[in-house]
Design a protein that fits this description.
The chain has four helices and five strands. By secondary structure, it is an alpha/beta fold. The protein has one domain: DsrEFH-like (Hypothetical Protein Ychn, Chain: A), CATH 3.40.1260. Strands 4-3-2-1-5 form a five-stranded parallel β-sheet. The chain starts with a strand and ends with a strand.
Length: 119
Amino acid sequence: MAKICVSVTHAKDDCDKATVAFVVANAAVASGQETLVFLSTEAVRLAVKGYADDIHEEGFAPLKQLLDNYLAAGGTLFVCSPCIKKRGFDESQIVDGAQVVGGAKLVEFLAQGASCISY
């Protein structure tokens, strides 16, 4: 089993990139890979309850569905702690299944030989 990291920095500022990131993450977890999505900068908003509900890029499943499917399939979702705090959110506002973490947790995953793709 490979380790796959999908790093996401966009939300409604680039719905296409945010959506494709979760399409790739779903493909990785569905193929049995240990998969981590790391949300940083604007992408942390995707983990805020209700935020992704109205994001639907033409040609793709709605982002909320992609996010829910990813978590239900056992994917790991890390949310950058400083990034979420900078935007005025706290852990009580984050979707179930997401983990608010510092950068050291991402580095730990990557140091174990993970391949990383960024959106």
